[in-house]
Specification:
Length: 120
């Protein structure tokens, strides 16, 4: 069972940073069990960038976000768009400094988008 602090952190990120509806986040308890740092934020950063660039139309369902194995996520959202969005794999892997520090930043998704626009 997740702590109240973790539940609040995951919900805050999904609702405030990603724009998911709080009820849809609450209806997918599997997402609360995922690591915010190692699964949710990297995947959401990739998805948010793809949406912002018009490469996909909408955020993916939270159930898919939380249960899709890395290989499937990489195929569907990273490898497929790596040519159009250089640096997408680095964001997924958390290989830039700002992405590693994202939990301390006010807007981790904007930081990831900035990295794509201005890679180190």
């Amino acid at each position: 069972m997740a702590s109240e602090k973790k539940i609040m952190a995951v919900m805050s990120f999904l609702v405030n940073e990603m724009g998911y509806d709080s009820s849809s986040a609450a209806e997918c308890p599997l997402v609360i069990d995922c690591s915010l740092k190692w699964r949710i934020i990297p995947r959401c950063s990739v998805i948010k960038i793809l949406v912002s660039k018009g490469l996909i139309k909408e955020l993916i369902p939270l159930r898919a976000l939380s249960t899709m194995v890395d290989e499937a996520f990489l195929e569907k959202f990273v490898f497929k768009y790596e040519q159009q969005v250089p640096g997408l794999m680095k964001i997924f892997k958390g290989q830039n400094v700002a992405h590693k520090l994202r939990l301390d930043l006010p807007n981790p998704v904007a930081d990831a988008e900035n990295f794509v626009a201005n890679p180190i």
